[in-house]
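During the reporting period the student researcher (J.K.) took over the structure-prediction task from the postdoctoral fellow and processed the backlog of single-chain submissions. One of the processed entries is reproduced below for the supervisory committee.
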Amino acid sequence: MDYDLLLRSVFSSFIFSIVLTPIFRVVAIKTATVAIPTHDRFHQVTTPLMGGFAVFLSFSVCLALFADLEFLLSLRLLFISTFILFVSGFYDDRKKLNPFLKLPTQLFSAYALYMVGWKFKILPTEFGNMILTLVWVVGLINSMNFIDNIDGLATGTTIINSFFFFIAYICLYKSNYHFLLLPISLIGACLGFLFYNFPKAKIFLGDAGALVMGLLVAFFGLFLFQTNEIKPFIVSFLICGFLIFDTTLVIFYRSINGRKIYEGNKDHTSHRLVNLGFSKFGAVLILYAVNILLGILGISVIFLPLLIGYGIISFVLFLFGVFLVLLRKGFNYK
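J.K. obtained the following structure tokens:
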């Protein structure tokens, strides 16, 4: 495995991102591509968006520099999908696109991955695997966008998830360093951006960045499914456990309180932790720790008997249910 190439990739994407981010911050200010404070957000001052431009460009340039052309061509539908999501996300940042108009681009991205073979293979029917793939991809795209509600959370979650997918792929397959360039380049790009996005953020990702990050993390999970074994699914579920939990939390409580799922509100895990008395910085660190713990559990499943893997995911699901109840105290609907 070419570790030198991987190191050069993560370092280059980091440098690109740390240089490009302040440039796009200026562009965002001059073009009024900014996030204005609203009731469902933590930030209290108008903040530039377009951080996603720095991440997306840094990630893309590093792949163009270090990845094999044949490998890149094999992923052309992934890159087309990310570009479509990026454009729709940027339009939403500028014009506030209707949520139902964003869904077709997300479904296209999910179906494109399914059609070229990046899909679940654990169900007995192909239709079931297709539906599960669509739910996985569209769900994680929106989950990443949902958690982009407090400084540094979406970016940090992407870094942590990508790192554990990087480790999982090495543990499971031990080859094909070209694929490893994807998560490692994204990690470098996000680390460079996090320098400006960590509390107190000087710039936000915007939908353009969050949607692309969600798609890439979903793809990293699908890439593990090269067989019909259940273990890669358990690993991916645990690595993305926080994203899945937060979205489940929001959908559950908005539904039972008669609210629209897609309307923003201060009812995410991060908001509830702050309402319970934690600082914003402390809430982000707690959720980083949750991501890391779930990632470690995911990697551990690779080396344990499948029965223990079932036990771990069952215990995590039980804890999810407990926290769904406990975190209700962190938010009171009016």
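The committee noted the following: The two ends are 56 Å apart (CA to CA).
J.K. will present the remaining backlog at the next meeting.
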